[in-house]
Amino acid sequence: MADAGSWVVVGLDNGGTSNNATVLDASGRFLVDRLVETPSLVREGPEVAVEQLLLALDNVLELTGTPRSTVRAVGLDTPGPASADGVISSKGATNFVDPGWFGFDFRGALESRLGLPVVYNNDGNAAALYSHHVRFGPDAWQHSSVSAIVGTGLGGGVIQSGHVVKGAAGMAGELGHVHIPLQGLLEDGQPLPECNCGFLGDAESVASLTGIEKNLLPYWLTRFPGHELHGVEQVGKAAKLLRGYGENGDPLALKVFEQQAMAIGRLFTIAANFSDPDAYFLGGGVVEAAPHFREWFLEKVREHTLLREEQRRVATVTLVEDLDMAGARGAALAALTEIVGR
After folding, report:
1. C-alpha 6 chain-centroid distance
2. 158 & 260 share domain
3. 191 and 219 Cβ atoms separated by less than 8 Å
């Protein structure tokens, strides 16, 4: 690589409410050690959102005292679904509800405004890439990993030899829509969980906030008729409160989260048989939970990740590092990789 001060790349993590930005120098050193957020305004449409990304870039450059002339490339990540080239799905997405987003070339529009190369990944892939490089460091190019990021949906990423596996249409690593075995996961009489994508019994239908709201919590409330969450008028609000109950050892909440951990473990078991990675990373809201609950959940995931003895000797199941910064940092790493040609 070049000298640290000779040039930089910027990572931009676009979200439903905020953009997070970081700067990575030519030696691979991040110049920002915290969140640097600005409003994303994506619900106001593409033109406004692109301008907000320019604002995020200028803001982080000013914060780090970095001249814009030294920026060699920009890494961009957004929520999906989107193509490998950063074209938002023609059906839109949870964060991209304005019709102007449908089929919008987000990467191309930002590149045109900046006059710089823009390297695109979806947010799950960007977080997966960062986790991989943190874990393996200089040896990242010799290893593989699979990441599951639990949020409103279930994102993910597959990294092979240090690179994101994108697939022909850019849809590789959509782990949330992999079907998982449900026998032994669901209780007798528990309805088949349905995903917003229309699938029955995929991983996201269980292991996501939407899965809790739509499938798990309504069922478990019937099994705990006296639970105080019955008094919460909206099930969506009750779902968001559930992690706090889990941290306090609430039996209903632990049943819900145990099913989520089982689902992720079964997803990782499937991954073990098609990619046999060196590491399995878990990210999402549970990573930011109280330490005792986080460790309980991770141990449940490990318990239900069925690896062969040979795999257990070489692989690890662990947490995503620096989750709130992982997207922007992964986007920056992807841009740096593009420049240095790894």
Report:
1. 31
2. yes
3. yes
